[in-house]
Amino acid sequence: MNWFTKTFSSTIGRKIVMSITGLFLCSFLVVHLLGNLQLFKDDGGAAFNIYSDFMAHNGIIRFMEIILVLGFLFHIYDAIVLTRRNKAARPIDYAEQRPQENSTWSSRNMGLLGTVILVFLIIHLWNFFVPARFGGLEGVVIEDVEYENLYLRVMESFNVWWYVAIYVISMVALAYHLIHGFQSAFQTLGLDHKKYTPFIQGFGYFFSVVVCLAFAAIPLYFFFFK
C-alpha cells in the first residue's frame, strides 16, 4: 500500500481527491435541493416533513450520509494541505503581480470562499440536522402518523433576518466556489480539451448559478411570503 499512500499524499494525488470529492458534493447539492423544493408546496409542510422522515430513517440514506461526511472531510483537509504547500513553495510574493490579468477572482479566493461555506455548514447542521437526528423538534400528525415537524423549524429560522442574510451570502460564496471548482475539477482529471472545455465551463457556470439561486430562494420565500 506504500505506492497508494505516496500517490494520494502527493500534490497531484490530493488535487485528484479534491476533484472527485468536489464533483461528488455537487451531486449531493442536486439531491438536497430536490428534497428542499418540497418546501414550496402549499400543504402546511406535509410533503417536506414526510420527505425528512424518510431521509432520517432510510438505511441506504443513512449509509450515504457517512460517505458524504467523509467526502466533506477529505475535500476540506486536502484544500488546507494544498493551500499550505502553495504558500510554502512561494513564501514571498513576486514584486509585481497582476493576478486579475491571468486568473479569476473566484480562483484567487477559493480559500476565503471555502471558509465562508464551512462556517455556514456548521451553523446549518447545528440548526437543522442535529435537532432532526437527535430530537428537540415538535411533533405533527399527518394522515394519522406522527412526524417531527422540521417544517416548523424551517419557518422559524427563515423568519430571522440575520439568518436569512447569512444563508443568502453563503449561497453567493458557494456559487463563486463552484464556478471555479467545477471546471477546475475536470481539468485536474485530465478532461481538458478544446472541444469539451467550453461546454464544461458553460455548464459549470449554469449549474453553479441555478443551484445556488434555487437554494437562496428558499429563505427569501419564507421571509417575505410566509
UniProtKB/TrEMBL annotation:
- Tell me where the transmembrane regions lie: 16-40, 60-80, 110-129, 160-182, 203-224
Under the heading CDD domains, the entry gives: SQR_TypeB_2_TM
- Which top-level group of life is the source organism from? Bacteria
Looking up Gene3D superfamilies in the UniProt record yields:
Fumarate reductase/succinate dehydrogenase, transmembrane subunit (1.20.1300.10)
- What is the protein name given in its UniProt record? Succinate dehydrogenase cytochrome b subunit
Q: State the species of origin.
A: Pontibacter silvestris
- Tell me the keywords, alphabetical order: Membrane, Transmembrane, Transmembrane helix
Is Transmembrane helix among the key words of this record?
Answer: yes
**Keyword Transmembrane helix in record:** yes
